[in-house]
Amino acid sequence: DAGVTQSPTHLIKTRGQHVTLRCSPISGHKSVSWYQQVLGQGPQFIFQYYEKEERGRGNFPDRFSARQFPNYSSELNVNALLLGDSALYLCASSFAAGTYEQYFGPGTRLTVT
Amino acid sequence: GENVEQHPSTLSVQEGDSAVIKCTYSDSASNYFPWYKQELGKRPQLIIDIRSNVGEKKDQRIAVTLNKTAKHFSLHITETQPEDSAVYFCAAIPGGADGLTFGKGTHLIIQP
Q1: Looking at beta carbons, which residues of chain B come within 8 Å of A47?
Q2: How far apart are CA A15 and CA A40, in angstroms?
Q3: How does A24-38 read in b/e, with b if 16+ C-beta sit within 10 Å?
Q4: Could you read off the pLDDT of B50-70 as tens digits, one per residue?
Q5: Is the pLDDT confidence value at A38 over 90?
């Protein structure tokens, strides 16, 4: 899990703005999942990508989108930010999609004002 | 969709005693059940997992048990130490899906 990297570490945005978060998986892993963790709660699943294709989507609005690049890194985009989008955004790396171990990155702390 | 319930929300035990955290799930097709430990301000760390074809798994002081019939699984920590203090999350992958569904977490406090 030490190999999963995310950037930036912290981010402050204003309501209505757009944000892009980035994730690099562990070397050799081909799947990336995104989760949102609100303070005091467990992470909530947003997306999973495997081999550059979306494999799963959680119950999040269309303002949330993601993609995976040929080197298996990934971006999470959020449009028209709301105050309620303030959270820790976690990226998890796994060898493939399905029931494989998922290892989390350090997260990006997003604050929307 | 899958729903994972976790109890208790807070657990305080004396150092050296055992701790047990319990989770139930709703989707009978769920087949993978990991446990994560999250210290304050840090990432969730995978500590142990179990698959639906296994009833129990142990790794040193940590064990996980799974009862598929009752749809519940539990984390057991023996000989607790101060460094075990953290929030623990159980999770499940529903059948046919790829994202983890997490419980709300258990704050484990080890009293010296």
Answers
A1: 99
A2: 23
A3: bbbeebbbbbbbbbe
A4: 998 889 999 999 999 999 999
A5: yes
Determine, for residues A48 and B98 on separate chains, whether the beta-carbon distance falls below 8 Å: yes
Q: Which of B98, B100, B101 to mutate to test the interface with A (most CBs of A within 10 A)?
A: B98
Whole-angstrom Cα distance, residue B101 to residue B89? 10
Region A31-54: mean pLDDT is: 95
The low-confidence residues of chain B, meaning pLDDT below 70, are: 95-97
Which residue is it, tokens 């944000």? A19
- Give the model's pLDDT for residue B4: 96
Residue B69: count other Cβ atoms within 10 Å of its Cβ.
7
| pLDDT tens profile A77-94 | 999 999 999 999 999 999
Q: CA of B42: which chain A residue's CA is closest?
A: A106
**Number of Cβ pairs < 8 A linking chain A and chain B:** 63
Question: If contacts are CB pairs under 8 Å, which of residues 20-79 in chain A contact chain B?
Answer: 33, 35, 40-48, 50, 55-56, 58-59
